[in-house]
Amino acid sequence: MSTLQRLCHAPLAFGRLLSRGGTTGWIGFALLLAIIFMAVFARWIAPHDPIEQNIANRLMPPSSEFLLGTDSYGRDVLSRIIYGARISLLVGISSIVIAMIFGTVVGMLSGYIGGRFDQLVMAVVDVMLSFPSLLLGLMVAAVMGASIENLIIAIAVTEFAPFVRLARAPTLAIKEKEFIEAGRALGFGHARLMVVHILPNMVSDILIMGSLWMATAIRTEASLSFIGLGVRPPTATWGGMIREGFENILDAWWLALFPSLAVFATVLALNLLGDALRDAIDPKQRRS
Amino acid sequence: MNTGRNPPQDQGIVVENLCKHYTIGGRWPARAKQIVHAVLDVSLVVAKGESVGLVGESGCGKSTAARAILRLIEPDSGKIFHDGVDVCALSGPGLRQYRRRAQLVFQDPYASLNPKRTIRQTLEEPLRVHGMAKPDEIAERVERALAEVGLPASSLSRYPNEFSGGQRQRIGIARALVLEPDFVVADEPVSALDVSVQAQILQLLKTLQQLRNLSFLFVSHDLGVVRNFCSRTNVMYLGRIVETGPTEQVLDAPRHPYTRLLRNSSPIPDPAQRIHLVASHQDLPSATNPPTGCAFHPRCPHAKERCRSEVPTLQAIPGDPSRAVACHFPLHG
Amino acid sequence: MTQETIAPPGQGLAPVLDIHNLRTELLIDGQWRAVVRNVSLTIHRNETLALVGESGSGKSMTALSVLKLLPTKISRIGAGQILFEGKDLASLSERDLRRIRGNRIAMIFQEPMTSLNPTMRVGEQISEAIRAHKNVSRADARLQAEQLLQQVGIPSARLRLEDYPHQFSGGMRQRVMIAMAIACRPALLLADEPTTALDVTIQAQVLAVLAKLKSTYGMSMVFITHNLGVVALIADRVAVMYAGEIVEIAAVGDLYSEPMHPYTAALLDAMPRVDRTEDVQPIPGSVPALTDIPSGCAYAARCPLKQPCCEKDHPELLPIDGTNQRFVRCFVRSAK
Q: For a tag site, which of A90, A154, A177, A226 has the least CB within 10 Å?
């Protein structure tokens, strides 16, 4: 099967895999699709402009015009949540992708090269892992300043170390297999052995863990935005909205509740999806 | 290097005084540093089109020596010549060229193929890496290689786990041959196979050898297989070659006591020739703590004082230049 | 320990083990498939029976069936009886079987490292094997363990009792496993490829230990192997298996001088010998898959003597001569 054919078959394979994980996986997947849909088509779904201020309507409870109420600037909460999904998903996906790529490369190199290099990398990774991830993200964001790019980098940093570990272990195992030695005997270079022979054996595991950790990334983003180190206002982010809700919690309960539910739903969807995928992979490995 | 020989161009593989050692421990306070001499002063010759055996039991260093000859393990000292070219001095494209012409067939048919690649990918890859064929020729060469080992073309789109052990071994052989090597190291290629499949693979290897005039270094612990396949044999014990010569003579009239022990312990499918099983409990020697002098002396019924202190060197047998033995008191054949 | 007088294998005495029409099945892809098909075997006192076959022949499965050591969910004994000391092992409860395992029938395996507990000292493991079946004190069991280690030829036995399995070499570990197996003086020892993973000089030593123990204790042994050289070395009688069935039974001398079944003859021709330089004759074709066993003779597709009847009808295992010592499963051979 050529790579192109394999790409076309991928959605089918994914569907089959997901079914093996049980119905909860499908629920998570559906929920995630809904959130992505909401983010992509925000312009057509959102009833109001998310940053349009209307002081006359400030702090109004949910009504027929403003389904989820308004905030202290009179902005529609629902529209802000819909647009906020964009930020969360963008930051979540980008940071995970960056962490995945860098982490996998470093982990693979570490396992393959071994020796002192490996020991050094592992020492650094162990130090990084000993920090609570939020604290790490906080330090990076505080140093670099608050912007969406820096936020992505900060969260990528928190997610980097687990991917290094995740890529290193199978590299160590596969490196010893005879077909790698066969490749060397056939004159293959190290790059080819790593990319063509070792990497494909890890890809599925890494992608699945990536989906699980995206949930963490989104939570971290919300937390950093809550603290104020995230995207600057007036852009709508769920974390920022929760902060505002937190300040007004006695008067306007809807300001804190709905963004929190949005974060909750996204994290739940990703967890259900990731768990189902992981369960689907595991028994297969045991059987084969 | 002490032979002073200038290897002629067509002499195949010439190995001189090959040495490889490993260090264990030394880092942790608990374990003192230990040196394991896996390969000690190994010299052998594989002429063009010849099959030479390398026999011994576990820990004798035969696999290490074989891989060092292919430079899959870097030798610590010694010389290796391939058609007159000094292999140890090669690097980069020169080394890649050597890898093309000197190939390896593995013992384990299950671990030596990448389970995620189709047979076609596995066979095409070496050709692409070495740029050996134009893209349109690659498919044809791969199909030819597969036909040569007796597998149908439909195998190409399948994965290794769909094949039996014997079939996978054939695929491994096809992969080694697709680069058109002239020297093949076979590391216990039939040990993991059933008797009937083993016979098929041995016959295949013989046919291929004749067709392509291949030189073989056949590593094995099975003397019957070695007798069947190799015209000459080297016997190894704890890193050294203790006897060498034409296979039939070495097995029928061994000069080294270890060769005789090895030969007598090898079961023969003939109840009339039952060897008298003697209860003894001498283990294979430890590589980290080898005996002094001749490594075999603790197990040797003829050991004398000299054997405990002096390491015997490989000497040609007077009157028979094709045979050599490393023993102070060689047996009389 | 006194040496018992040894009677020549078998004759006249009641057999130690009597297997009748054993059928063992494995659950594969949701269907029950027979891996041991209609196997009948008799093992006599003081006899070493070699059970020979290649992978997939069912030889290991037969031995595991005797002691019901097969994985429970995916295997079962479909039919047959396994008679031992007046009981049918096939229908015995797990509790009663445990009284026999390690006690009256013992088994040793190919990989001693996985059969021995790596975290327990060797002396403890042997003592445990003894005390599981005999009511002796710890001190007595330990003394017996030391004697057993001496019997299997491990030097400095008392000191070695304190060692862990990884401190023994492969051949020594195998001896330890043998010591554990014979601890309760079993009537029958099942040996599943015990020397296949050992170097050839060590193999010779371990076979010597087994031969000595057999004659000391008057034990019967079923020796499972694919190596026809080892069989010639130690067997009294040989049973050859192919695709789950026994295709030939003969005394060892007869089997090698005049193999009856074409598969036996082909195996002998395919085996390279250390004492002769000759071409090996490969057997064309391959063993039929478990899911695709032909209805006629399982070997017909590869057999040089094939007749039309061989593919249609299924041959029975029939005695060749009147002495009930030679059996062969072949239309062509039993017709003569």
A: A90
A143 by Cβ neighbours in 10 Å (0-12 / 13-18 / 19+) ranks as exposed
Give the distance from CA B272 to its chain's centroid.
32
Interface subset of A 151-190, CB within 8 angstroms of B: 177-179, 181-182, 184-189
Q: Select from B103, B108, B125 the Cβ nearest to the Cβ of A178.
A: B108
Cβ atoms of C242 and C266 within 8 Å: the answer is no
Closest CA relative to residue A259, chosen from A107, A88, A131: A88
Q: What is the mean pLDDT of residues B5-9?
A: 49
Q: What span, in angstroms and rounded, lies between the C-alpha atoms of B292 and C292?
A: 59
pLDDT tens profile C270-283: 999 999 998 899 99
β-partners of residue C76 are: C25
Contact C157, C150 (CB under 8 A): yes
Nearest one of C90, C168, C92, C64 to C123, comparing CA atoms: C168
Flag whether pLDDT at C106 surpasses 90.
yes
Distances (CA, A) of B283 to A57, B241, C206, C212: 92, 19, 11, 19
Instruction: Give the C-alpha separation, B159 to B115, whole Å.
Output: 7
Q: Regarding predicted confidence, which is higher, B46 or A211?
A: B46
Quick check: helix, strand or coil at residue B27? coil
Alpha helices in C225-278 (DSSP H): 228-234, 252-257, 262-270
pLDDT of A286 reads 41
| Phi, psi (degrees; rounded to nearest 5) at A188 | -75, 145
Quick one: CATH architecture of C17-104+184-335? 3-Layer(aba) Sandwich (3.40)
B contacts of A186 (beta carbons < 8 Å) = 99, 103, 125-126, 129, 175, 179
Q: CB C98: neighbour CB atoms within 10 A?
A: 14
Is the sign of the CA dihedral C260, C264, C269, C275 positive or negative? Answer: negative
C227 touches chain B (CB under 8 A): yes
CATH 3.40.50.300 domain position(s) in chain C: 17-104+184-335
| Arithmetic mean of pLDDT, C13-30 | 90
Q: What angle do CA A171, A177, A180 make, to 5 degrees?
A: 80
Two tokens, residue B270: 């003939």
The pTM score is 0.83
pLDDT of residue C53: 93
Supply angle C-alpha A266, A268, A274, rounded to 5: 100
* Helices A238-247, A203-227: inter-axial angle, 10-degree rounding: 30
Task: Name residue C165's amino acid.
Answer: P
Tell me which DSSP letter residue B157 carries: G
> How far apart are alpha carbons B142 and B149 in whole angstroms?
11
- Write out chain B residues lying below 8 Å of A196, CB-based: 125
Token pair for B233: 């044999």
Structural class in CATH, domain A10-44+80-287: mainly alpha
Query: Which long-range contacts does A172-180 make (Cβ < 8 Å, 24+ apart)?
Result: A172/A111, A174/A198, A174/A201, A175/A111, A175/A112, A177/B111, A178/B106, A178/B108, A178/B111, A178/B112, A179/B111, A179/B112, A179/B113, A179/B114
ipTM of the complex: 0.86
Q: How many CB atoms lie within 10 A of CB B319?
A: 6
What are B26's two structure tokens?
């030394």
Domain ranges of chain A: 10-44+80-287
